[in-house]
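Exercise 3.2. Students should predict the tertiary structure of the chain below and write it as structure tokens, then compare their answer with the key that follows.

Predict this chain's 3D structure.
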Amino acid sequence: MGVRSTMMVAAALAAAVSFGAVAAPMSGNPILPGWYADPEAAVFGKTYWIFPTSSRPYAEQTAFDAFSSPDLVQWTRHPGVLKIEAVSWAKEALWAPSVVEKDGKYYFFFSANDIKNDSEVGGIGVAVADRPEGPYRDLLGKPLVGSFHNGAQPIDQFVFKDDDGTWYMLYGGWKHANIVRLKDDFTGIEPLPDGTLYKEITPAPEYVEGSLMFKRGGRYYYMWSEGGWGEPDYSVAYAIADAPTGPFKRIGRILQQDPAIATSAGHHSLIHAPDDDSWYIVYHRRPLGKTGRNERATAIDRMEFDAQGHILPVKMTHEGVPAHPLP
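Answer key:
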């Protein structure tokens, strides 16, 4: 081999090594092993967290696991962070977590019992722990919201803190959504500025469940799931308003099935990386070839905005996202 050839090979090897050094590892999708749905994503300190529903037959959804990661790629499972035995009034399934930190405590909001009318016991509960991984204990000994208001089944809650420190909870199934203002200690609700306790904010006739809210550029984004959670057309849509109570007008879908990747993509949450303006959508989907209602897996992909602040359609992937260690 001549000198020139040797130099070319050496350069190629150096380039390959250099490329390998800078190529970030990918999370892959699904991001969690096993059947998990309704993922709640959060950042606490220097750690990412995902709190999903255990996607099993209804009667077997009796505990929540949690997963933590320093970089969105390597995840550690924390089993049984909240168990049905810790909630005296919960007799059936637990699902749809929403977890927040306040004053050094962690509050785990959840749905239980899937009530069909006000004579049944169940609805939205809240538990508390000293650490994100629990163990969580029931805070109230009863549901936080345990009856129907404005036609909304008390399920699929999301807790949102506004810039002024006000805590809100959005929730609702059966095609109706409400917003309530939470007391500072999360033991109940208090009137909204207009005096109402339960304000309906159903954003569109297509609304089904899975409420979520975030604020960006001074505007409030309301996201939700449409279609049937057991059907291929499950999807995520959104609206924008100037206040958390609306009025909201549906803009369109941003996540839906892809015949090359997966079906039934919905009931999501978001991660906004604190060190830049990167946004990630964490959601569940059904792998191709699977048809069982509980065959749902948790995935993560990038979420981006256009210059006007509209959410661009999310492209589902098998690769997931690159590592993003927290500062």
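Discussion points: The longest strand covers residues 262-272. The first helix runs from residue 3 to 22.
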